[in-house]
């Protein structure tokens, strides 16, 4: 997320093709890890019921957050400042208020994403790192979406970077909580792995794939296919 903020502060928004490729790639990796690593691993360490319950819990958790917490869906023209709501031009103080709401939403959404990393780490360090890389790629555009309204609202660059970094740090905090919580028993590890799969499939379906196709459909497809193949290869 800090990298995304730096891109906005230094260069403005990236091109549509690049953003589509990044979002599609992250979605492909997440879907492959969920299908070939997390769900089979949850069934192996636990049972089918553990896998189903954990998957539904992870997806349901992200759905409830979407309903109750403001979250940045990067709509609008990439040539202008990113806001979470619309194209309309509004006063700087209202843009800044939107930026603060997006910051809060991002910070809270990053905690369950960290839980997914923690669940992967409990299964194996390699899986945890792979999940962290996929979520990290997904968080670069989210850092841009957080920094855009804050910058457009007149907040100083240092404060924009600080707030965006603070929101990003909720992910390693969630990972630490996940390692502690899911390390108690194999059944909880199984539930945690399935929870991570449910959360990542929801993120891919709700955010990454729609947004990637909105900006450039062909680059989105290349990103998804490439990310899926890499995720499949890493799961072997």
Can you give a write-up of this model?
The longest helix is centred in the middle third of the chain and has 32 residues. The two termini are 29 Å apart. The chain contains nine helices and no strands. The protein has one domain. Helix content is 83%, strand content 0%. About 7% of the residues have low confidence. It is an all-alpha fold and 236 residues long. 55% of the residues are buried.
Offer a concise description of the structure.
With 236 residues, the protein is mostly helical. The protein has 9 helices and no strands.
Class by SSE composition? mainly alpha
Please tell me the total number of domains: 1
Number of strands: 0
Helical content (DSSP H or I, runs of 4+): over 70%
What Rg do the Cα atoms give? 17 Å
How far apart the termini lie comes to 29 Å
**Overall pLDDT metric:** 80
Stretches where pLDDT falls below 50 for ≥5 residues? 74-90
Shape: globular
Main sheet: strands, sense, barrel: none
Order of helices and strands: HHHHHHHHH
Strand content: under 5%
Q: Count the helices. How many?
A: 9
């Amino acid at each position: 997320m800090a990298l995304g903020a730096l891109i906005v502060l230094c260069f403005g928004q990236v091109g549509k093709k690049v953003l589509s490729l990044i979002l599609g790639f992250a979605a492909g990796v997440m879907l492959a890890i969920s299908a070939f690593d997390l769900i089979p691993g949850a069934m192996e360490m636990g049972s089918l019921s553990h896998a189903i319950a954990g998957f539904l819990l992870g997806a349901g958790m992200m759905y409830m957050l979407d309903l109750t917490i403001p979250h940045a869906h990067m709509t609008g023209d990439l040539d202008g400042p990113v806001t979470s709501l619309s194209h309309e031009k509004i006063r700087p103080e209202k843009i800044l208020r939107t930026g603060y709401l997006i910051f809060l939403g991002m910070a809270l959404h990053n905690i369950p994403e960290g839980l997914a990393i923690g669940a992967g780490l409990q299964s194996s360090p390699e899986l945890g790192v792979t999940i962290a890389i996929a979520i990290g790629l997904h968080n670069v555009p989210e850092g841009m979406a957080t920094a855009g309204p804050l910058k457009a609202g007149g907040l100083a660059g240092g404060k924009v970077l600080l707030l965006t970094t603070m929101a990003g740090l909720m992910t390693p905090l969630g990972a630490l909580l996940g390692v502690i919580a899911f390390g108690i028993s194999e059944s909880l590890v199984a539930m945690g792995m399935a929870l991570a799969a449910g959360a990542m499939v929801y993120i891919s379906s709700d955010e990454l794939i729609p947004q990637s196709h909105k900006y450039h459909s062909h680059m989105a497809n290349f990103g998804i296919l490439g990310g899926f193949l890499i995720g499949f290869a890493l799961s072997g």
